[in-house]
Specification:
With 407 residues, the chain is of the alpha+beta class. It contains 22 helices and 11 strands. 52% of the residues lie in helices and 11% in strands. β4 and β5 form a beta hairpin. α7 runs parallel beside α9. It is elongated. The structure holds adenosine-5'-triphosphate and magnesium ion. The site of adenosine-5'-triphosphate has 12 residues, from α7.
Length: 407
């Protein structure tokens, strides 16, 4: 390690040590050092300093990024470097210190194990090894104070518990039931990043259930939480569960995951509510969908700042749903050419599996995509006896998805 040669201390720390001890392949590597970010930058040409609240150096090795953090100190010598908000939130934490001080600024004991590359020893000041062996997540220090300093630690607790299969120590768990509203103070860009980690790392379903249990989900997706609570039958929940299972499976098969698909699924039911309200006020269907999408996305962006290309793709997936019911004439061919056809079709399939769309329609589209030209032509020609005019548009899924009343 080049930091060593330059006379600095360097330890592997955080998730990589925790995961290596479990025999898992770490997602990334974090390094803690006594060199300042500027000194790190002098040693590594391929290095960038990032962050304001928490200044770090990113060192690039090909496609890998190693996060190099300077030891944090506990005592602010200079109030400019550590800024605490009136609600206890740490707005800036750039007081540098020693390893002994750095330990106490970490979140969980199992994340505060320092692996010394030189002699393969693990430095453990907080009982992290013991907790690790007991599969226990425990916040370092006073949990309420630590959650107030950084409410995102509540999300991290849930994320690690789901991912590692660890349980939360009661003292770490209990305050979350009360303190979850503190998440509202977190900037939307950071919450968006956290949401991606929560739902797109292969443990989305368990994470979702846990987030709901602690009241955290309702802070992140209030409209969705409301729709889950007011549901009359089980399908909004089932639809979400299937969507999460589906993306967990894809992740574990090593396939790529696009954030917009799951986000479109998370907000689908709130969108339906908003659309129905608008239709009831006499808006036409196209306008109702567009306005409802604007309304839902505008609200959600304030909490989790999705970038524009993501919200655009969400809209595409949503707006294409109604187009699947048009199976006559040139329209099916046009739909097939849409950039988001595949995603929209997968979405339709999930809806059909949970009672929100017509399974016959899914079959029709599955056949149509694969069919030769002649079959496609037959499939899209108007039904016999319809005097040659294209059939009026019918909305298959909506007419069939109404709850069946027993006769
Ligand atoms: P992952 O497997 O997701 O990378 P990780 O534990 O490495 O998990 P990082 O976000 O990469 O998580 O952070 C690296 C380390 O920095 C953590 O293990 C922890 O020690 C410390 N850390 C990160 N975020 C916080 C936080 N909000 N509060 C306190 N310590 C934190
Ligand atoms: Mg990490």
């Amino acid at each position: 390690m080049r930091l060593k040669k330059a006379g600095f201390e360097a330890y592997l720390v955080g998730g990589c040590v925790r995961d290596l001890l479990l025999g898992r392949e770490p997602k990334d590597f974090d390094v803690a050092t006594n060199a300042s970010p500027e000194q790190v930058k002098q040693i590594f040409r391929n290095c960038r300093i990032i962050g304001r609240r928490f200044r770090l150096a990113h060192v690039f090795f090909g496609r890998e990024i190693i996060e190099v953090a300077t030891f944090r100190g506990s005592e602010p010598e200079d109030s400019e470097q550590q800024v605490v908000h009136a609600d206890g939130r740490l707005l800036r934490d750039n007081v540098f210190g020693t390893l002994e001080q750095d330990v106490w600024r970490r979140d969980f004991t199992v994340n505060a194990l320092y692996y010394n590359i030189r002699d393969f020893s693990v430095v453990d000041y907080t009982g992290g090894m013991q907790d690790h062996a007991a599969a226990m997540l425990r916040l370092i220090g006073n949990p309420s104070v630590r959650y107030r300093e950084d409410p995102v630690r509540m999300l991290r607790a849930v994320r690690f518990a789901a991912k590692l299969g660890f349980s939360l120590h009661p003292d770490t768990e209990n305050p979350i039931h009360e303190l979850h509203p503190l998440l509202k103070s977190i900037p939307s860009a950071r919450l968006y990043d956290e949401v991606l980690k929560l739902f797109l790392s292969g443990y989305g379903l368990q994470t979702f259930e846990m987030l709901r249990h602690y009241g955290l989900f309702g802070i992140l997706f209030p409209d969705t939480e409301r729709s889950l609570q007011s549901q009359q039958h089980d399908f909004p929940r089932m639809f979400l569960i299937r969507a999460l299972e589906n993306s967990d499976r894809r992740f574990n098969d090593g396939k790529t995951l696009t954030p917009y698909f799951l986000l479109a699924a998370l907000l689908w039911e709130p969108l339906q509510f908003a659309v129905q309200k608008r239709l009831a006020h006499g808006e036409n269907e196209t306008l109702a969908y567009q306005n409802a999408a604007n309304e839902i996305l505008t609200r959600q962006i304030k909490i989790t700042a999705m970038p524009r290309h993501i919200t655009q793709s969400m809209r595409d997936v949503w707006f294409l749903q109604n187009k699947f019911s048009r199976t006559v004439g040139v329209r099916p061919y046009r739909l097939l050419e849409q950039a988001k056809f595949r995603a929209a079709f997968d979405f339709l399939q999930l809806r059909a599996e949970t009672g929100g769309a017509d399974p016959e329609l899914v079959k029709w589209w599955a056949t149509f995509q694969e069919a030769d030209e002649e079959t496609q032509r037959k499939m899209t020609s108007p039904p016999k006896g319809s005097n040659g005019k294209p059939r009026r548009k019918t909305n298959h899924y909506r007419s069939r998805s109404k709850p069946k009343t027993p006769q």
